[in-house]
Design brief:
It is a single chain. By secondary structure, the chain is α/β, with parallel strands linked by helices. It is 43% helix and 14% strand. Helix 1 packs across helix 4.
């Protein structure tokens, strides 16, 4: 059976023209063997591919059709981006929630016409429509996995900020006994691992991961004693290096600080705030920009623009 399981994983990866990494294969294989799985892999490793492949893997492995995976995710913008990505790859993915106004999309989820359902913790915990969906005979038959993406949020947000995260373990009582849970995160200390396992009621989960070493990322904490001097140093380097300036994110605690730093940088940079200099101050030419929340437009524009330096707060909400 072990060889057949590996053959199935290889066949599904060929279907989607993807070469899976060792840890991705290990996570899928462990899940196929009836384990709860905790995936702790760095950003950019491809964690989402692990659960996105599960419907096709189970269909082929069990000789069935219509397997469904529910993925609980914290941000609407993240769900929308993942849905678009996997739809493009040929995986039937839909997100549901207050922001989903397409009735056909919601109907396709309720009638089991999709492979991958993205939903927020609040909707799966508090919306009777989706709780009843999980209890329906259709989902009792077709649901093969409950996935919690960005699982560290269970610990960091579950007590005060987004209480539904703290009660996600209750969902386990609604699932069929053969449905396992997969938790994924890039942020997993030993304390976080223990807290998430306890709150999600994970049964001796298989831990998949390694200690990330992102040599291209540097963290630095600087006291901002004098705003002008702080910004002048940055502006001087930006003028000199332009597009060679290392990609930088400045996190601040308050929206007012975010605005103050951005406008002081803009004053010090003058025409060099754009590349090339003296170009119109349009977003596509800006070397420096400011964001105050992780909206869909913000996330998409950050990936497409010149931005060498971004000033933002850490108060990012759904």
């Amino acid at each position: 059976m072990a060889d057949r399981a590996m053959d199935v994983i290889s066949e599904v990866s060929r279907r989607y023209n993807v070469v899976l990494k060792d840890k991705q294969v290990e996570a899928i294989y462990s899940f196929m063997n009836g384990c709860d799985v905790f995936v702790a892999l760095p950003t950019g490793y491809g964690k989402s591919l692990i659960y996105a492949f599960l419907p096709s893997v189970f269909d082929l492995y069990k000789g069935q059709e219509g397997s469904i995976v529910i993925c609980i995710s914290p941000l609407v913008s993240l769900m929308m981006d993942q849905k678009s990505k996997f739809t493009h790859q040929g995986i039937k993915a839909v997100f549901v929630g207050e922001e989903q106004t397409d009735e056909d999309a919601i109907r396709s989820v309720l009638t089991g016409k999709v492979q991958l359902v993205y939903i927020s913790p609040e909707n799966i915990m508090c919306n009777p429509l989706f709780r009843n969906m999980i209890l329906s005979p259709l989902y009792k038959e077709k649901l093969v996995a409950l996935v919690v993406d960005e699982a560290h949020c269970v610990k960091t947000w579950g007590d005060k900020f987004r209480l539904a995260y703290g009660h996600l373990g209750d969902i386990r009582s609604l699932l069929s006994s053969n449905v396992n849970i997969m938790a994924l995160t890039a942020t997993a200390t030993n304390e976080t691992y223990k807290a998430v396992c306890k709150r999600l009621s994970l049964n001796t989960p298989k831990l998949i991961g390694f200690q990330p070493n992102r040599s291209n990322i540097v963290y630095e904490v600087k006291p901002m004693i004098d705003l002008d001097n702080f910004c002048q140093d940055i502006a001087r380097e930006l003028k000199s290096l332009a597009l060679e300036y290392p990609k930088t994110v400045i996190f601040v605690q308050r929206y007012s600080d975010c605005s103050a730093i951005y406008h002081t940088l803009r004053k010090n940079l003058g025409p060099h705030i754009t590349f090339p200099p003296y170009y119109p101050i349009w977003q596509e030419y800006l070397l420096v920009d400011m964001y105050t929340r992780a909206s869909t437009i913000t996330l998409r524009s950050m990936s497409k623009k010149l931005d060498e330096l971004v000033v933002t707060t850490n108060c990012q909400k759904q």
